[in-house]
Design a protein that fits this description.
The structure is a single chain. With 652 residues, the chain is α+β, with helices and mostly antiparallel strands. The chain folds into 5 domains: 113 residues, Beta-Lactamase (2-Layer Sandwich); 126 residues, PAS domain (Beta-Lactamase, 2-Layer Sandwich); 80 residues, Orthogonal Bundle (Helix Hairpins), CATH 1.10.287; 155 residues, Heat Shock Protein 90 (2-Layer Sandwich), CATH 3.30.565; 118 residues, 3-Layer(aba) Sandwich (Rossmann fold). It contains 18 helices and 24 strands. A hairpin with a 2-residue loop joins β4 and β5. α9 packs across α15. About 1% of the residues have low confidence.
């Protein structure tokens, strides 16, 4: 009939064709499990053997309950059920896994049978099992590697994800693999703000060119911890336009810190080498310059004795002496910077040193500044030269005052601290252990970052011409380093500066006491003095000054000449005054040879600079009489009488 649809027989033939050609196994069973029809069987079973049999005969015992449950469920609810089942052994000995869907066969409104459609899923399950095994192997391997092994995905919409990330991501980024498998936002948010543009640009370039991606970058956690990472990966483009990188990321913070520490130590070494070179130059200059200053001071003081006190020539001589003294201070600063200054350490409590200086410091700083002292309790003792340490404190206080022209706050603080191995590893010549910290802090103008690394260099100054030599902080640096300590500066423009000095604690010994020094008129004597000095001007003024005080003086230009001249001397010899560094024979060798013939002779060394002849690392040895150049006739006379009048120390 025209316009009529296909006949029922047509639909029956279509269903039969599907039934016969599908790769799935299709069968119908009644409520008791009898097989009513089946489209195919597994050899060696035949259709005749299976049809009419009970389906439970072909189901492994462990699965029969599940099959029965499915049949009853469909008959009762008319709803589809599904399950996975492993069938009997096939001809190859393997048991096929099937996915089974069970649905109702309804006739005249009643469920007369159930239809079971079983799909072979053995291949899929095998692939899943192999994928799982590969994943487990990958996880085992990646767990032995430092950092994170990962797949990183850039989707076409610009979003990121980590389809795979090893367990190392917990330590490196503090997230779990599950948290970033679909969205990498938690990891991307950790990029350091300064590095984030660089990271995104490197990803963009790698995604565009499909060239390997590698980068060193920083991440910053909410607790402000910053870590350095290194990443390396290879990209590939996916059919959907995504790009996936396969690679690893490792934490290189320790390596970066070690490299920075090595660079800092190298810079310290270069600085030390520069200081050493300038120090050698300063030592040579100081030796000659101090000799000249001694002559200038000596002859000036002698000349002043012959002039009326209020005369114009006397005033002129006084200005010469003032200028020479300033020159002497300058050479001492140069020697202190170069660690060539001769010092005599004392065991001191810095709190007492600062307390003794407080009145002077307050007058020096002025009333427009807030001056605060914060002494530490139970402060450890340190071994330093008293005068040198006072110079350091005074210099830092003056610099702080100059940095606060409109007022501010100056704080001097002391406390006990312990420096650890990490600190010592990044600071040459420092050892871990207990230290005393002396901090001088101001709220002044601060120090720009581009010059903070130069402030301890000699002759570097930001002050106007005529307002500073540039040796003040260099001197502080040298004094502190010579005492076995460390000086550091922390500063920001507009936020002030903090100078921190670390001095090692003396583990043994007790604090010394210093008696007040009283001035006295020059006293002479009749003793015999051997005066040995290679500078003729110093020799001349000293001979004139000492003979004027009644002493008998034998002078010589060096040790060898001194021994020749004293060989013909028949009387006693009371005192040897000798320069330390001289040609042909120095002062220490001379004193040793002289004692052989004059065992009771006393010795006074004098120098503006020594090469460890009577000192070790700039520290004067015990029981050594020493007069620092430049000196005046009065200082020389006072020192001589002190030595000659001192009682002999009995031998032990």
């Amino acid at each position: 009939m025209t316009g009529a649809g296909p006949s029922p027989d047509y639909y029956a033939s279509i269903l039969n064709a599907v039934f016969q050609t599908t790769t799935d196994t299709i069968l119908t069973v009644d409520r008791k499990g009898m097989v009513l029809a089946i489209n195919r069987t597994m050899p060696p079973q035949t259709m005749a053997e299976v049809i009419g049999s009970n389906c439970f005969d072909w189901v492994p015992p462990e699965s029969r309950a599940r099959v029965a449950q499915a049949i009853e469920h469909v008959f009762t609810t008319r709803q589809i059920d599904e399950y996975e089942i492993q069938g009997p052994h096939g001809p190859d000995g393997l048991r096929v896994w099937s996915y089974v869907r069970v649905g109702p066969v309804i006739e005249h409104g009643e469920v007369t049978a159930v239809l079971m459609c079983a799909s072979n899923i053995s291949t899929r399950l095998t692939a899943e099992r192999e994928r799982k095994e590969l994943l487990e192997r990958l996880q085992k391997i990646s767990s032995q590697l430092p950092g994170v092994v990962y797949q990183f995905k850039l989707r076409p919409d610009g979003s990121f994800a980590f389809p795979y990330a090893s367990e190392g991501i917990r330590q490196v980024f503090r997230v779990t693999p599950e948290e970033v498998v679909a969205d990498a936002a938690k990891v991307m948010a950790l990029a350091h703000p300064e590095d984030n543009p660089r990271i995104l640009e490197s990803i963009r370039i790698s995604a565009t060119t499909l060239q390997p991606w590698q980068l060193e970058f920083r991440i910053k956690f909410p607790d402000q911890t910053v870590r350095w990472l290194y990443g390396n990966s290879v990209p590939q483009r996916e059919p959907d336009g995504s790009v996936i990188w396969h690679g690893f990321i490792t934490d290189i913070t320790e390596r970066k810190e070690a490299a920075e520490a090595a660079a800092a130590l190298e810079a310290q070494l270069r600085q030390a080498q520069r200081v050493e070179s300038i120090g050698r130059l300063a030592g040579g200059v100081a030796h000659d310059f101090n000799n000249l200053l001694s002559a200038i001071l000596g002859f000036s003081e002698l000349a002043r004795k012959y002039l009326p006190a209020e005369s114009e020539p006397a005033h002129c001589i006084a200005r010469v002496i003032e200028a020479a003294n300033r020159g002497g201070d300058l050479t001492q600063q140069m020697l202190a910077f170069a660690r060539k200054k001769i010092v005599k350490p004392e065991v001191l409590n810095l709190n007492r040193v600062i307390a003794r200086m407080e009145p002077l410091l307050r007058r020096l700083i002025g009333e427009d500044l807030d001056f605060v002292l914060v002494p530490g309790s139970s402060l450890g003792l340190v071994s330093v030269d008293m005068g040198s340490m006072e110079q350091v404190i005074m210099n830092l206080a003056v610099n702080a005052r100059d940095a606060m022209p409109t007022g501010g706050k100056l704080t001097i603080e002391t406390q006990n601290v312990t420096l650890n191995e990490k600190y010592a590893a990044t600071h040459a010549e420092m050892q871990p252990g207990p230290y005393v910290l002396l901090a001088v802090t101001d709220t002044g103008t601060g120090i720009p970052a581009d010059i903070i690394g130069k402030i301890f260099e000699p002759f570097f100054t930001t002050k106007s011409p005529g307002q500073g030599t540039g040796l003040g902080l260099a001197m502080c640096h040298g004094i502190v380093k010579q005492a076995g300590g460390q000086i550091e500066v922390y500063s920001e423009p507009g936020k002030g500066s903090a100078f921190k000095i670390y001095l090692p604690v003396v583990m043994e010994g007790s604090e010394g006491t210093r008696k007040p020094r009283l001035s006295a008129p020059m006293k002479g004597g009749t003793e015999t003095i051997l005066f040995v000095e290679d500078e003729p001007l110093v020799r001349d003024f000293a001979r004139q000054a000492l003979t004027g005080l009644g002493y008998k003086v034998i002078d010589a230009a060096n040790g060898k000449q001194a021994l020749e001249r004293i060989a013909s001397h028949l009387g006693p010899l009371d005192l040897l005054i000798t320069d330390v560094v001289m040609p042909k024979m120095g002062g220490t060798e001379l004193s040793k040879k002289l004692v052989e013939n004059f065992p009771n002779v006393k010795v006074l060394y004098s120098s503006g600079y020594t090469e460890n002849a009577i000192v070790h690392h700039g520290i004067l040895g015990a029981n050594i009489n020493f007069l620092q150049k430049p000196y005046t006739p009065s200082a020389l006379a006072e020192t001589i009488r002190k030595i000659l009048d001192a009682e002999e120390t009995p031998p032990k």
